[in-house]
């Protein structure tokens, strides 16, 4: 069919458009020449030079620390939000709640950043906290917008889940929190991992929010890179950027690998359960589709 | 007081499990997402001041008289100064055309992914998703090296003999368009794909059995069915681009007037917090309709109603 070839062509062109600039960036980070546009042979001197840059290394450590805290908090908060949205169909303010969960996905960062900073300033005046802005305020800002991403990922998974498993556990007398931790959490674990890694990457990347809510002495890696990039293209920045790209690709690959493995294991377990059921002479064509007991 | 009574009282004070589950995310989002907007609104009515923090209080309470002074000067400044109006219009224009471009490029790509083999789909989605996790900063930076006067693109075109002197692309609006489409394309493709992959192929088969041409059935069946995906994708591009700061700052030039950049300059360079707040309030007022549209389509998606 003609349309098929056209769309496949667009896909290939689009992927080239997305990846070629990044590939060029990585190649040029190994450029021997100080002039970024002239190729002077292969070299890793820019990478070695990075290690001596203590200011940069400090900001890397700070960014990683914030990203870790953000991943943990965003997964907890986002999962709760997703659970509320998919499982509790009616409560006061549900529409508002839904809006609050999804709006951070699209809200321009300059608005979120400015408003959070003004909140922190007002809080410092009123209750004396936070005295100085730094890691904690950046963590709060990142958690708020990463939780929205986690909520989207986790709610997609929660919707697919077979409710009858949770219902069965409840019928057998398990308390709701026990059902949640022993049944629901293990079943949505891959999406929790995906959401966590996504939050980690998003937090590591954020420039605008961090610029607004950070204080003196708490520059993160993107802020450091930004102030250097403003002055033009430099080989050291090529090296930093390549390292960030490498880290993110690694995280993405891990997400893909683990979610695929979890999926395969789940399929195998279902297959096994069906076979065992059949061997017992207990006729049930598909365990997953069994009607919930009324 | 016996134990039973005490327990019952305790139950009345301590919120139930359900209330806690709803309450934690609700309170967090209210505190750190919604409440801040009201503070922005408040400060947009204040006056800039040489103090810490650099604005005046809008209410005073002296001798049992509460006085609230709403200073409208910031808003009349925005309405009267052509620079700000041009910046708003520039942002909206940039957002509109880049959304259209993303849709034109992204729709065929999402369609191709949705019609690929199942194992292939996961890999392709991952390939599209990966850049969204990478800093916009780095992806934009990569283009700076390509588009500059002595950059790769100009070098390539000159060596091919197509042009004699380098084209000025970096620091123009063209560079901003390239950067925006490049950075936001995945956000268009992902919701479109999520929608297209759920379509029932038998509808298209039925249409073709009844003699409909491929294009006709695409236009009359696939496109209307993917309405929610199109809305979500367009909003995911349009709304953030209106407030975009990094791309116009790094790729744009003096002709690039965008509101995110202006807000940043008012805040960081001029330290005029009230004007920056007023700019944010007006931007939010412009974006409130698209945001509600997005939230609706997202709520439908989350509840599983398509």
TrEMBL record, chain A:
<protein>
    <submittedName>
        <fullName>ABC transporter permease subunit</fullName>
    </submittedName>
</protein>
<feature type="transmembrane region" description="Helical">
    <location>
        <begin position="179"/>
        <end position="202"/>
    </location>
</feature>
<comment type="similarity">
    <text>Belongs to the binding-protein-dependent transport system permease family. CysTW subfamily.</text>
</comment>
<feature type="transmembrane region" description="Helical">
    <location>
        <begin position="66"/>
        <end position="85"/>
    </location>
</feature>
<keyword id="KW-0813">Transport</keyword>
<feature type="transmembrane region" description="Helical">
    <location>
        <begin position="237"/>
        <end position="258"/>
    </location>
</feature>
<dbReference type="InterPro" id="IPR035906">
    <property type="entry name" value="MetI-like_sf"/>
</dbReference>
<feature type="transmembrane region" description="Helical">
    <location>
        <begin position="136"/>
        <end position="158"/>
    </location>
</feature>
<keyword id="KW-1003">Cell membrane</keyword>
<keyword id="KW-1133">Transmembrane helix</keyword>
<dbReference type="GO" id="GO:0055085">
    <property type="term" value="P:transmembrane transport"/>
</dbReference>
<dbReference type="GO" id="GO:0005886">
    <property type="term" value="C:plasma membrane"/>
</dbReference>
<dbReference type="InterPro" id="IPR051789">
    <property type="entry name" value="Bact_Polyamine_Transport"/>
</dbReference>
<dbReference type="Pfam" id="PF00528">
    <property type="entry name" value="BPD_transp_1"/>
</dbReference>
<dbReference type="InterPro" id="IPR000515">
    <property type="entry name" value="MetI-like"/>
</dbReference>
<feature type="transmembrane region" description="Helical">
    <location>
        <begin position="97"/>
        <end position="124"/>
    </location>
</feature>
<keyword id="KW-0812">Transmembrane</keyword>
<feature type="transmembrane region" description="Helical">
    <location>
        <begin position="9"/>
        <end position="30"/>
    </location>
</feature>
<feature type="domain" description="ABC transmembrane type-1">
    <location>
        <begin position="60"/>
        <end position="256"/>
    </location>
</feature>
<keyword id="KW-0472">Membrane</keyword>
TrEMBL record, chain B:
<dbReference type="GO" id="GO:0055085">
    <property type="term" value="P:transmembrane transport"/>
</dbReference>
<dbReference type="InterPro" id="IPR035906">
    <property type="entry name" value="MetI-like_sf"/>
</dbReference>
<dbReference type="InterPro" id="IPR000515">
    <property type="entry name" value="MetI-like"/>
</dbReference>
<keyword id="KW-0812">Transmembrane</keyword>
<feature type="transmembrane region" description="Helical">
    <location>
        <begin position="123"/>
        <end position="144"/>
    </location>
</feature>
<keyword id="KW-1003">Cell membrane</keyword>
<feature type="transmembrane region" description="Helical">
    <location>
        <begin position="273"/>
        <end position="294"/>
    </location>
</feature>
<feature type="domain" description="ABC transmembrane type-1">
    <location>
        <begin position="88"/>
        <end position="294"/>
    </location>
</feature>
<dbReference type="Pfam" id="PF00528">
    <property type="entry name" value="BPD_transp_1"/>
</dbReference>
<dbReference type="GO" id="GO:0005886">
    <property type="term" value="C:plasma membrane"/>
</dbReference>
<keyword id="KW-0472">Membrane</keyword>
<keyword id="KW-0813">Transport</keyword>
<feature type="transmembrane region" description="Helical">
    <location>
        <begin position="85"/>
        <end position="111"/>
    </location>
</feature>
<comment type="similarity">
    <text>Belongs to the binding-protein-dependent transport system permease family. CysTW subfamily.</text>
</comment>
<feature type="transmembrane region" description="Helical">
    <location>
        <begin position="174"/>
        <end position="194"/>
    </location>
</feature>
<feature type="transmembrane region" description="Helical">
    <location>
        <begin position="230"/>
        <end position="253"/>
    </location>
</feature>
<protein>
    <submittedName>
        <fullName>ABC transporter permease subunit</fullName>
    </submittedName>
</protein>
<keyword id="KW-1133">Transmembrane helix</keyword>
<feature type="transmembrane region" description="Helical">
    <location>
        <begin position="20"/>
        <end position="41"/>
    </location>
</feature>
């Amino acid at each position: 069919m003609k349309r098929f070839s056209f769309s496949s062509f667009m896909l290939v062109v689009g992927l080239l458009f997305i990846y070629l600039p990044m590939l060029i960036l990585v190649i040029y980070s190994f450029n021997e020449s100080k002039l970024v546009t002239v190729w002077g042979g292969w070299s890793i001197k820019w990478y070695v030079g990075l290690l001596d840059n203590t200011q940069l290394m400090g900001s890397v450590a700070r960014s990683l620390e914030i990203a870790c805290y953000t991943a943990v908090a965003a997964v907890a908060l986002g999962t709760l939000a997703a659970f509320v949205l998919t499982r509790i169909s009616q409560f006061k303010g549900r529409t508002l709640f839904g809006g609050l969960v999804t709006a951070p996905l699209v809200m321009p960062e300059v608005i979120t950043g400015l408003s959070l900073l003004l909140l922190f300033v007002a809080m410092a005046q009123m209750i004396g906290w936070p005295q100085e802005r730094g890691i904690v305020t950046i963590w709060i800002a990142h958690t708020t917008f990463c939780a929205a991403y986690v909520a989207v990922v986790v709610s997609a998974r929660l919707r697919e889940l077979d409710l009858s498993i949770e219902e069965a556990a409840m019928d057998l007398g398990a308390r709701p929190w026990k059902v949640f931790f022993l049944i629901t959490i293990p079943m949505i674990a891959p999406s929790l991992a995906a959401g966590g890694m996504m939050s980690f990457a998003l937090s590591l990347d954020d420039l605008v929010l961090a610029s607004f809510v950070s204080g003196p002495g708490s520059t993160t890696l993107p802020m450091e890179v930004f102030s250097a990039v403003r002055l033009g293209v430099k080989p050291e920045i090529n090296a930093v950027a390549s390292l960030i790209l490498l880290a993110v690709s690694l995280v993405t690959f891990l997400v893909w690998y683990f979610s695929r493995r979890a999926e395969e294991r789940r399929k195998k377990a279902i297959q096994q359960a069906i076979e065992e059921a059949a061997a017992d002479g207990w006729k049930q064509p598909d365990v997953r589709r069994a009607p919930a007991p009324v | 007081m016996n134990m039973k009574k005490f327990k019952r009282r305790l139950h009345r004070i301590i919120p139930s499990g359900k209330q806690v589950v709803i309450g934690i995310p609700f309170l967090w989002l209210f505190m750190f997402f919604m409440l801040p907007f009201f503070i922005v609104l408040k400060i947009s009515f204040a006056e800039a001041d040489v103090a810490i923090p650099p604005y005046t209080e809008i209410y005073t309470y002296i001798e049992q008289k509460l006085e609230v002074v709403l200073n409208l000067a910031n808003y009349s400044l925005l309405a009267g100064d052509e620079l700000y109006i041009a910046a708003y219009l520039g942002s909206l224009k940039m957002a509109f055309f880049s959304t259209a471009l993303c849709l034109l490029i992204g729709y065929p790509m999402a369609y191709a992914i949705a019609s690929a083999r199942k194992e292939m789909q996961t890999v392709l989605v991952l390939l599209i998703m990966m850049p969204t996790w990478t800093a916009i900063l780095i992806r934009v930076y990569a283009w700076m090296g390509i588009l500059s006067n002595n950059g790769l693109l100009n070098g390539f075109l000159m060596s091919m003999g197509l042009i004699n002197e380098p084209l000025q692309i970096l620091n123009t609006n063209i560079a901003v368009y390239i950067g925006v489409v490049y950075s936001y394309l995945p956000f268009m493709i992902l919701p479109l794909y999520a929608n297209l992959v759920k379509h029932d192929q038998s509808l298209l088969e039925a249409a073709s059995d009844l003699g409909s041409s491929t294009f006709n059935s695409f236009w009359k069946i696939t496109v209307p069915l993917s309405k929610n995906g199109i809305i979500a994708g367009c909003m995911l591009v349009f709304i953030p681009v209106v407030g975009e700061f990094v791309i116009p700052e790094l790729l744009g030039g003096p002709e690039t007037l965008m509101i995110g950049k202006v807000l940043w300059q008012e805040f960081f360079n001029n330290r005029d917090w009230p004007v920056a707040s007023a700019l944010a309030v007006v931007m939010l007022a412009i974006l409130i309709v698209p945001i509600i549209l997005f939230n609706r389509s997202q709520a439908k998606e989350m509840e599983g109603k398509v």
